[in-house]
Amino acid sequence: MIEIHNVSKHYGEKRVVTEVQLPVSQKKLTAFIGPNGAGKSTLLSMVSRLIPHDTGEIYLDHNEVKTWKSKELAKKLAILKQSNGIGLKITVRELVNFGRFPYSKGRLSKKDHALVEDALENLGLSDLAEEMIDTLSGGQLQRAYIAMVLAQDTDYILLDEPLNNLDINYAVQMMQTLRHLVDKLGKTILIVLHDINFAASYADEIVAMKKGQIFARGETENMIKKEVLNPLYDMNIKICEIEGKRFCMYF
Q1: Torsion sign across C-alpha atoms 149, 52, 21, 206
Q2: Can you give the pTM of this predicted structure?
Q3: pLDDT digits (tens, 9 = 90+) for 126-160
């Protein structure tokens, strides 16, 4: 379980996140939406301990994240940031192998290799496994990083705009994979999305953030409404219903 209690983050006099109070539902896919600068990425980075929180507490399975040993935290929680850079001459498979490092320390077992192969297959990378990562397109590299996170096989997966650079086909496949991880394997996934319709299609719950604070939160069907989205984005969004699901028209 992840619990966020009155968490704030500031840089100098600029408050990026202000007193966020948020329980995160277990074994659900929770999407974070909102305009640029809302604090979504900063919040995920604090939950994963990539950056420290200035005030408040963040609990992971009833222990404050500050108290977790790094190697144990890496077995429990994985995060993919917006920007990643590994300046090494390695193959796709070697990159995905890094996801098993908290367990294998570089000496992969049969189980480690099986999880790497599953991750490569789920992200459509089996045919590219021996390619060098510096030869990949932006979308292929993004999928490789996501495969590395999936291979880590943690209870909690945090993804910061993972659909960047992905074409429609792979974006859909990736969201379907995430739903499978939640529905069949009981993973808890927190994901920052700019495309509201991916959140509407795949998320169990949506957290809307604006100006560093929680603007609204709730089950997806209760969040995809004009009264929530229009003031969130300061624009007029048309809500349509297709096959029992609500979608947004904002072009």
Answers
A1: negative
A2: 0.93
A3: 999 999 999 999 889 989 999 999 999 999 999 99
